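Re-running the complex after MR caught last week's input typo. The corrected sequence lines follow. Everything else is unchanged.
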Amino acid sequence: MSQTTFAPRPISAEAAHANENRKFGMWLFLSSELLIFAGLIGAFVLTRRNAFQNGLEWWEPNAFSLALVSINTFILLASSLMVVLGIEAIRVDHLRKLQRYLILTAILGAMFLGGQAIEYSLLIFEEGHSFADPFGTAFFTLTGIHGLHVFVGVLWCLMTLLVARRGTFSSYNYTTVEIFGLYWHFVDLIWVIIFTVVYLTN
Amino acid sequence: MANAPAPHDHAGAHRRHTNPVLVFGILTIATILEVVVTLFHLPQNVIVPILLAIAFVKAGLVAAYYMHLRYEKWIYTAIFITPALFAVFLIFTLAVG
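Corrected-run output:
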């Protein structure tokens, strides 16, 4: 049984064309974001190498921080799954399911940010790192900018949820959800690389 | 309605998509594998390429199946893959070199 609030209506050819353009624009934006993160990850790796070569203090993740970050990685991967399932739901006009998956995505995104806040507080208040030391400069810049992207993603998810609650989306019209999904998966993709480079190859 | 398009979807809409839960399972197992690999005290020049290879495979899975690049128009793949290749080269060179 269909769960849509309104009966789905086909969109015009012009609107479909506009949707394609929006997706195209999103892919261009993501490719530029990819280069920004490549630069940040490269800067982290160089700073780390420089610190080792010059005998400067660096950081080694302990068992607790590795467990915390692994859980955070799992949370972000799960949130991506929620977005995929949400898009699959709206493809068959299950608007309520889409709303549920968007709520779960926002919750998981907030949980990721909570985990990152715990990690930061441990690093700053227990281990005494700051933006001034080489590790702090490289680490907080990279993970902080990624965290900012997650924060924006959570806000975007909530805005998409608000639009979904108005019954705007249907199997004919869900590009807005798809574009949000692209952004969210991109943030997940970047974290996959950060997790390996920052925490596992230390 | 003469010019009304079929239900919104992109090229390959009717192709059967890979089960996202299966992809999630593979990503989770790969993440666990990465953490387990670090427990073996292998030399850096061995462990770093292995970990990076797993990470890039995971990133590829996210792009191909979650971002639907596998089913999308080739132009989206070209737009994303071009800077991605530069990024992979940069990170691999800096991390391994």
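None of the earlier attempt is carried over here. Confidence is low (pLDDT under 50) at residues 1-6, 9-14 of chain B. The CA atoms of residues 64 and 97 of chain B lie 28 Å apart.
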